[in-house]
Amino acid sequence: MVHLTVDLIAKSRKHFKKKRGLSFPEYLKTLTHLHFSNKNIEHIGDLSMCTNLTVLYLYDNNITYIGNLSFASNLTHLYMQNNSITHVDNLHNLQNLSKLYLGGNRIAVVEGLEQLHQLKELHVENQRLTPGEKLLFDPRTLDSLAESLCVLNINNNNIDDIRDLAVLKELQHFSAADNKLCSIEELEDVFSHWPQLFLMDLSGNPVCKNPKYRDRLITVCTSLEALDGREINDLTREFLINWKASREAKKKKIISMMSGALIPYSLTNEFNMGQDLQPGHSHAIMQRWKPQQSLRTEKFQFL
């Protein structure tokens, strides 16, 4: 079992050359970046002497558990993608963490990030989940990230519902490709809460087959610059927004006309005159009303 420790750092040729002129403890205090990707590491040992560590590269290893990072209060970037991590633990002391990469692990629930108020980017794509399982988010974590998170990558995680993500109102870049999103109405509702969104990728979801998918999302996401890898020019956006406004205005006008014509004049006139309805009279009035009602319904359906 390979452990990441200060002894492993000492044995590293890359670091051995740098430490000349300094004692090893002094050198460890100067370290800001540690590169130990693809080293068959299974465990993070005691690195507490690396007090100024800001960037840690541990991707492509065999780590199953996040631990022994409580010392790293200066850490801003943590790369732990493509390991075998099952739970997001022990990150509460990393209060300066800005970018967290956890893609390609075995995480079923995104949680434990409540203290990371500086987190700008979260990458949890391609989790190796059991069949039928989908990636979930702890509401407490989402609430804590609502004011800070700008980039979220949840590609390929069997996700079919993103309504809980609506609280992430600072999002600018959202990737949810190759999931199971189906409802265009649900997406429109969520994206209406993200006024700063400018990059989005939903390719590979069933919703992309909706004939008006692209047009409808462009009109909701008014700051969007690219959707599914295709740029959106200002002329296209302006045309679609004007088209949507015109369509909604026309719809409101039709509804207004219909609501004012639900009771025909002849019927309201007889009621307003205070005439008593004789037996059979109401039936005759309703018979006169039915053709008008049918005609207006057909007209509405045609429009």
UniProtKB/TrEMBL annotation:
The keyword Repeat applies. Keywords: Leucine-rich repeat, Repeat. It holds the Pfam family LRR_8. InterPro entries: Leu-rich_rpt, LRR_dom_sf, SDS22/Internalin_LRR. Coiled coil: none annotated. SUPFAM superfamilies: L domain-like. It comes from the Eukaryota. CDD domains: PPP1R42. SMART domains: LRR_SD22. PANTHER family: LEUCINE-RICH REPEAT AND IQ DOMAIN-CONTAINING PROTEIN 1-RELATED, LEUCINE-RICH REPEAT-CONTAINING PROTEIN 9. This is Protein phosphatase 1 regulatory subunit 42. The lineage of its organism: Eukaryota, Metazoa, Chordata, Craniata, Vertebrata.
